[in-house]
Amino acid sequence: MEHELKEFIKKCDMAIKEEDFDTLINYYTDDAVLVVKPDMFARGKEEIKSAFISIAKYFKNSLVPTQGEMIILEAGDTALVISQTLLAADKMESELSMDRRATYVFKKNSQGKWLCAIDNSYGTDLINQ
Amino acid sequence: MEHELKEFIKKCDMAIKEEDFDTLINYYTDDAVLVVKPDMFARGKEEIKSAFISIAKYFKNSLVPTQGEMIILEAGDTALVISQTLLAADKMESELSMDRRATYVFKKNSQGKWLCAIDNSYGTDLINQ
Q1: Chain B hits for A80, Cβ within 8 Å
Q2: In Å, how far is A64's CA from the nearest CA of chain B?
Q3: Is it the case that residue A92 has pLDDT exceeding 90?
Q4: Interface ipTM above 0.90
C-alpha cells in the first residue's frame, strides 16, 4: 500500500491539473506558505489560491504536476517529503526548472488528517543559486 | 537581530562541537528523526544520541559543523530551514559531501520553544543520487 502522504500529494496534483483551487486550498493549513518563485512567497489560503490562479494563467491553463522518486521522513504529526516534482505544460518555463527536487512539510491536524504547511517545489535550490 | 532559529541552530552546532550530547538531545522532539546516512535513520532521543556518539568517533572527535547561507520558511508553529551546512574535521569524509545543502524541520512546543523534528543534512540529495 502506498503511504497516505503519497496518495494525498496525488490529490493535490489532480486539483492543480483540474484547476479546482477551492478543493486544493483545503489541503493547506491556515498559515501555510507556498514558495511561488525563489523570491516570492504566498502566505495563507487566500494568497495561495491567488498564486495558483496566476500560475495556471502563466502556463496557459495546461499545467500538470506529477511526482517521481519520493522520500517521506515522518516524525509524529510532522513529515518532510522530498520529491522529484515534474511539471508539464504547453508553455514551458525557461527561467525555472520543470524537473525539481521539492521539499514539502505536512502536519497532521487534530482529526488525524495531513495538511500541507510548507510547499517549496524549489527544494534546496533556494540557496547558493 | 538574527532569527531565533538561526541562534538555536548555532547552539546545536556548538553542542555537537563540544560533544555535549545530553544538551544536544534536548533540542530534539521526542519523536525526532535524524538522517545519519542516506539509508540510515535514527528515531527518538536515545537513537539520535547514540548516532551522534558514533559520528563523533568516526570523525576522531574533531567534527565542527557551521552554517552558511540559510533560508527559513515559517508556517505558524512549524518551520523548514534550508541551510548550507559545512562540516570540518581532522578526518575528512570521502564518500559523503562535507558541504551540504541541508533541510531541517522545527516545531514550536506548547512553551513556545523551537525543537528539531527532522534533521536531514543531505537535503534533496536523498533522491536521484
Answers
A1: 80, 103, 105, 118, 120
A2: 21
A3: no
A4: yes
User: Could you tell me if B100 and B70 are in contact, meaning their C-beta atoms sit under 8 angstroms apart?
Assistant: no
Which of A5, A33, A36, A80 to mutate: most B Cβ within 10 Å?
A: A80
CB contact set of A2 (below 8 Å; sequence gap of 6+): none
Chain A residues inside the 8 Å CB shell of B70: 127
pLDDT in tens, B11-52: 999 999 999 999 999 999 999 999 999 999 999 999 999 999
Q: Which of A76, A107, A124 sits opposite B31 (nearest CB)?
A: A76
Query: What secondary structure does DSSP assign to B17-72, as a single string?
Result: HTT-HHHHHTTEEEEEEEEEETTEEEEHHHHHHHHHHHHHHHTTT--EEEEEEEEE
Which residues from chain A sit within 8 angstroms of residue B78, using beta carbons?
Answer: 78, 105, 107, 117-118
Max Cα distance, chain B (Å): 41
The model scores a pTM over 0.90: yes
pLDDT at B31: 98
Q: Which helix (H) or strand (E) holds B114?
A: strand B114-120
Q: Report CB contact under 8 Å: B127, A102.
A: no
Query: Tell me, what amino acid is at B62?
Result: S
Is A84 within 8 Å of B126 when comparing Cβ atoms? no
Q: What is the pLDDT of residue B94?
A: 66
Q: Please give the DSSP secondary-structure letter assigned to residue A92.
A: P
Answer whether residue A13 shows pLDDT above 90.
yes
Residue type at A49? Answer: K
Distance CA A48, CA B93 (A): 42
Chain B residues closer than 8 Å to A43 by CB: 75
